[in-house]
Design brief:
Number of domains: 1
Number of strands: 3
Order of helices and strands: HEEEH
Helix content: 25-40%
CATH architecture: 2-Layer Sandwich
Radius of gyration: 16 Å
Number of helices: 2
CATH topology: Double Stranded RNA Binding Domain
Structural class: alpha+beta
Distance between the termini: 50 Å
Oligomer: single chain
């Protein structure tokens, strides 16, 4: 289901209808919008759908103001599960936002905390 998932072995090619692909695109746009709501405006959020060997793959990515891009993938397991549920959208948005915020924290380190005087 999620990219880089260690479970699952060989999978069959998933083919989506135009309507299913459009729904997946809308779901992905919803995840991107929710992610933007969770992060300050300095974070750039993008998304795309492209084809892989097993079928369509949706990617959401965040470029923090410092550090590397953080991304997450969603691959429908079959045509019937091509849309992303509301819970999955929230989970993806929260997870990618948290990962991007952590990326900034790791790059900045603890030296950026204001000092009390």
């Amino acid at each position: 289901m999620y990219g880089n998932s260690p479970f699952g072995g060989e999978t069959e090619q998933v083919t989506l209808t135009a309507e299913q692909r459009d729904q997946l695109r809308k779901d992905l746009a919803s995840v991107a919008a929710r992610t933007r709501e969770l992060l300050p405006s300095e974070f750039v959020v993008g998304s795309e759908i492209h084809n892989s060997e097993t079928g369509p793959r949706a990617t959401i990515a965040v470029q923090p103001p410092v550090g590397s891009v953080v991304s997450a993938d969603y691959r429908p397991e079959d045509a019937e599960s091509s849309s992303i549920t509301s819970d999955e959208r929230d989970e993806l948005a929260q997870g990618i936002a948290a990962s991007a915020a952590l990326q900034v924290k790791q790059v900045m380190g603890d030296d950026t905390a204001p000092t009390a005087q």
